[in-house]
Structures are given as C-alpha cells and as structure tokens.
Amino acid sequence: MFSKKPESDYSTYGAADHGRNGNGSPATAILSPSVYASTSDANYSIINEFLVMRGDLESEADILVKGKVFGNVKCKLLIIDTGALIEGGIDADEVVVRGATKGVMRAKKVRLEKTADVDSEIHHQSFSAEEGAKIKGALRYSDDPSRANIHTLGTDATH
Q1: Disulfide engineering: 27 pairs with which of 15, 71, 85, 110, CB 3.0-4.6 Å?
Q2: What whole-number distance in Å separates Cα of residue 20 and Cα of residue 57?
C-alpha cells in the first residue's frame, strides 16, 4: 500500500540537501545547503506562488517567498524566488534574490542571482550579484546593516 521512495528519489527540498534532483543530475538548491543538514532539520516558512500577502511577516527562522508580499519582512534567511515579489522593507541576516524587490533592504549578506530585478536601497555587509541581475537604487555598505540610517532616494536629508 505504502512504499518507501528509493534513496535516490529526492524531493525539491531534499535535492537542496543532497545536491541532486530526482533524475540524478545536479539540482539548484532552493534553500542553502549550509543552512540545513537534512529536511527533518528544516525550519522555514513558504509563501507559495498562489498567495498574495498584505501586511508584515516576521519569523525567527527562514522564509521562502514564491508569491507576492506587500509589506515588511523580517527573518534570518530570506529567499525571493524567480517570479516572486516583495514590495516593502526587508530585514534579514541573509537575502537571496531571484525575483523582484522594491523598498529598503537591510541584510548582513545579500546575493542577487541573474533573474533578480531589484529597485531597492540595499544596506549590506557583504554583497554579490550575478551577471544579468537588474539593480536600480543604491548600495550602502555598513558594518551593522540592521542599524543603518535609511536615506530616501531622490531627497536631501538636510532639509
């Protein structure tokens, strides 16, 4: 009636842990392999592609966004997947952007992948972008991005 999947048949999330997808070829990890040793240790929330959230999200763990969020997001690791959108502030230890963002982003580590479309003021300690990532806004280095002053783009803060 119930059968155990063969060890080589990993799910999308298991592929992140084992570096292979179900057909044995290398998989693109949805969640950073360094974050989770196995799927049983996974501690994250998913906003799926069919969901539109209006309001703020806060988690002491990680968030994977595949849908749309109109509001602020605070978490440890935030992954904005291809086709996803966050319009609002982002405060996280690490952010991986494959989709779109609009608003102020504060993170120790920010990685923009080639499909990223970012219209944000980014306060970061570590920043990287793949060729093809679209960036509009400002990059601001800070030793402590969570405490960085926010500059309003296009205005003079002295008035």
Answers
A1: 15
A2: 31
